[in-house]
């Protein structure tokens, strides 16, 4: 064994008569014997790797991370929001544009200078349906409620 090289495994058998036989180790077919000639010559296959190779970071791996998505969204949306606000401020400076923007708002918001009904009031009166008038609950004493329970039990027993 060497800490710097990996060699092909070899098995050396010495029998009781002193005969030496070397064979290559076959882990897949242990019964198969492949003899090797003396003197044994070992060649290094590779250097041993005692540690795992550190994973390299890739830009695609970082961007495809689901926790990174909100950051990407913020980076894209904040400049767009600033551009939009800058355009809105430019629109407020122009009086013609300001008048056209306010006209549709008058249509949506109720204007009480005219005799038009409010949309919500109209929906309540026409679509809301009939309103029920609730009467206040009658006050009962404990003895009254006990008598009502007894009467209802008697009625059930008589029907059974």
Provide a descriptive summary of the structure in words.
The chain is built from five helices and five strands; from the N terminus they run βββββααααα. The strands form two sheets. It has a three-stranded antiparallel β-sheet with strand order 2-3-4, with no helix packed on it. Strands 1-5 form a two-stranded antiparallel sheet. The model has no long low-confidence stretch (mean pLDDT 75). Among the domains are: 6-46, no CATH class; 70-108, no CATH class. The chain is mainly alpha-helical and 160 residues long. It has helices at 59-63, 69-93, 95-108, 119-126, 142-159, and strands at residues 6-7, 10-14, 20-24, 35-36, 44-46. The chain is elongated. This is ER membrane protein complex subunit 7 beta-sandwich domain-containing protein. InterPro entries: Beta_sandwich_EMC7, EMC7. It is found in: Membrane. Pfam families: EMC7_beta-sandw (PF09430). Residues 133-160 are annotated as: Disordered.
